[in-house]
Amino acid sequence: MSIAQNTETAARLRCIFCGAAPDCAGQDFRCTACGDLLEFVFPGWISDSPAFDPAALKSLWLNRRTSRNPLDQSGVWRFRELLPHIPNPEEHVITLREGNTPLYRLPRCARATGVENLHAKHQGMNPTASFKDTGMTVAASSAHQQEFRWVACASTGNTSASMAAYAARGNMHSLVLIPDGKISWGKLSQSLDYGALTCQLRTDFDGCVRILNELVRQRPVYLLNSVNPYRIEGQKTAAIELMEQLAWEPPDHIIVPGGNLGNSSAIGKALLEMRELKLITRLPKLSIIQAHGANPFYRSVREFGGKKLEPMTADTLATAIRIGNPASWKKALRVLQATGGEVEEVSEVEIAAAKAEIGADGIGCEPASAVTLAGLKKLRRSGFVKSGEAVVLILTGHLLKDPDFTIKFHRGDLFAGTGDAAEAVQAKSLQHAPVVLDADLGAVIAAVDAAERNS
Ligand code: F0G
């Protein structure tokens, strides 16, 4: 079934600032008239027509869950009516069956925050263990369809892991630019195994982006950062799948981490489009949480009313969101305002504590994802989120992405000798340090008894 007069031509590029509508994007995915970002719009959608039936679309998507077609088995391509069309999908779509991620209740976190109806949509359960796969399948497929030999990205580690995997599946070469020393080993090891040319640059993420933007002007390399609007389209599907999991009954709040701000833009875009298509009747408030040490968007909104964004030198142990000059801040601002969401910042200790609390619910996530729970606590204290409201946290990466952080936290080493050591005392009760014992039954029984007394 089609929701557009002609799905083949339904998606159009448009500049988010000046409205210019280029036929195709340049190498850097920036508007040639004003330099701002491009986005996909769907002027062919005929949701106002009496013939358009949102219920039929929902049941089409649901029925695809039982299909054997790889496109239908993907939690992204299952929703292809809302995505740009890739010609000859059998030949060009690169899929690892991404999406299809679980929605979990978080009972302990619910008690700790006083929000009874609290869920986590775990995007870390994607094939390369982060939310990046949902956008990557679409953008990498577009690169394949355009016959690029090389794809490239600057990354804090997850985009690069995802890109390297999809490039390998599509027989393309991939170039990864990552900051030397400030990404987790888990993520670095992924891009090595998937065969990327991995360059660790002696700079930060923002420095990697600068070099990459120059590179794509000089070499025929396809840019796979989230300025690429195909990435945003694929990442929309997390929100569509979430609504389906909630029987199309939107929660009151969705809370996401903010780094380069592509993901919040994508989820917000999906919410607005779903309302336009009458798939949902009201909008959840989309709130964005940043680490205090990497908070340019928070400061933009709180200090400048979103009128400008001052880049900063970012620093946080949540290395995935160690970003000082987020590319998609204007897109994120638009969805923040359109949905009535809030922006918050959280401390390093708040992030570490929240991560352990999500772990204690048997779920786990990487540090950047845990800003969502830490942010929820602050939004509860400010009264923005009320106890009776339904809240969904978007967990963006898997616990095993950054085991170093987790082990240091539980051993009590994470903040030792730092300015956060005093605040970290509050998180002590969440730590479960490993116990080293002689290979002796009595010693193990004593450890169990001691743990039982303390439980
Ligand atoms: N959470 C995780 C685990 C991430 O890897 C990222 C971004 C974010 C949140 C923030 O998402 O940038 O769309 O606002 N990681 C990028 C990367 C920058 O290179 O892997 P965002």
Secondary structure topology:
Elements: E1 12-15, E2 38-41, H1 54-63, H2 70-73, H3 89-92, E3 103-105, H4 107-113, E4 118-122, H5 132-145, E5 150-154, H6 158-169, E6 173-179, H7 185-193, E7 197-201, H8 205-218, E8 221-223, H9 229-245, E9 253-257, H10 262-276, E10 285-291, H11 296-304, H12 329-339, E11 343-346, H13 348-360, H14 367-381, E12 391-395, H15 403-411, H16 421-424, H17 441-454
Helix pairs in contact: 5-6, 5-9, 6-7, 9-10, 10-12, 13-14
The protein binds ligand F0G.
Number of E-type strands? 12
Strand order, biggest sheet?
A: 3-4-12-9-10-11
Separate helix tally? 17
Percent range of helical residues: 25-40%
Bound molecules: ligand F0G
User: Topology as H/E string?
Assistant: EEHHHEHEHEHEHEHEHEHEHHEHHEHHH
Averaged pLDDT = 96
- The class by helix and strand makeup works out as alpha/beta
Shape: globular
C-alpha termini separation = 56 Å
The Cα radius of gyration reads 22 Å
Low-confidence runs: none
Largest sheet: 6 strands, mixed
| Range of strand content | 5-15%
Compact summary:
This protein is an alpha/beta fold. It is built from 17 helices and twelve strands. The protein binds ligand F0G.
